[in-house]
Write a structure and sequence with these properties.
The protein is α+β, with helices and mostly antiparallel strands. Helices cover 20% and strands 28% of the residues. An eight-stranded mixed beta sheet has the order 1-2-3-16-8-18-5-4, covered by helices on one side. A three-stranded antiparallel beta sheet has the order 15-9-17. It has a three-stranded antiparallel beta sheet with strand order 11-10-14. The structure holds succinic acid. Succinic acid binds next to loops.
């Protein structure tokens, strides 16, 4: 089989076909896929009905698997594989409280946040439940030059749950909470492979901007978030069973949607890959 690549839009995203990810890939394919990953930031592989070990093997093309933070959502036999399941979700006024329902980048309060997250669709509702992505590299590129220079100097403290978070996070045990880091992250990061700058935002976890009064800092975060989440920066992925999607947490934000029938079943495997400490774009 030969690999074919279709770019998803003119900014980011690529759909890869002609690969069978149930099998290990060769070294040249691995190198090519990693180059595509750094460039396109979201890679979509259709028709890959993988078992958990095959999914782990496929994700490892791009790096080293890391622990899932919420242990109650891992597969008992494969603890590096988590699951996003509607059966685990609470409801409020009849609506499912899905995890990840505003644009974010995963575990941004980690000292070295995951470089990538990948989902594999096992069961999908008959409508809704898409995952959305926005390209925070292009969002940065489009800012006025003077603002880019000012933002490059700034850092934000990222915590488990911001005091102004638009969503609630999973409640952790006091022992797990004690292990959660609080980390100052650059507002503009440099991609370790491509060298491209990107906004680094997560309204659920950012606790203002260092050196700014709280209201001023949160107002700047909101302004940048509104800018970066415009539909012109978006790719919306409509899931099919057997889709494997992997995204670069240093280049895109993502969000889940609860717009499906809560009685229907949505179930995806989830893995994350270890990342490095974020570098500021100087
Ligand atoms: C997430 O990882 O934020 C959830 C994405 C999804 O379930 O669509």
């Amino acid at each position: 089989m030969s690999m074919t690549i279709r770019t998803i839009n003119e900014i980011f995203g690529a759909e890869i076909s002609g690969l069978d990810l149930t099998q290990p890939v060769g070294e040249s394919t691995r190198t090519e896929l990693n180059t595509l990953f750094s460039k396109h930031a979201v890679l979509v592989f259709r028709d890959q009905p993988l078992t958990p070990p095959q999914f782990m093997q496929a994700a490892e093309i791009f790096g080293t698997l890391m622990d899932q933070q919420i242990k109650k959502f891992v597969l008992p036999d494969y603890p590096l594989v988590g699951c996003n399941s509607t059966k685990d979700l609470p409801r409020k006024n009849g609506k499912l409280q899905v995890r990840g329902e505003n644009y974010h980048t995963d575990h941004s309060n980690d000292i070295a946040p995951p470089k990538a997250t990948s989902l594999l669709a096992v069961e999908i509702p008959s409508y809704g439940g898409d995952t959305q992505f926005v390209d925070v590299r292009r969002a940065y590129d489009d800012l006025p030059e003077a603002q880019k220079i000012a933002l490059k100097q700034l850092r934000s403290k990222h915590v488990h749950e911001s005091s102004r978070s638009p969503r609630s996070f999973a409640k952790l045990s006091p022992e797990d909470m004690a292990k959660i880091p609080h980390t100052a992250q650059p507002l503009v990061i440099k991609h370790p492979v491509s060298g491209r700058p990107a906004l680094y935002l997560n309204t659920g976890r950012m606790e203002g901007i260092e050196g700014m009064a709280a209201d001023e800092g949160f107002a700047l975060i909101d302004e940048l978030y509104q800018h970066a989440t415009q539909s012109k920066y978006e790719y919306r992925h409509p899931w099919r069973v057997g889709d494997m999607v992997i995204w670069d947490n240093r280049s895109v934000m993502h969000q889940a949607n609860a717009d499906y029938d809560p009685e229907e079943y949505r179930y995806l495997y989830r893995v994350m890959l270890q990342g490095d400490k974020l570098q500021p774009y100087a």
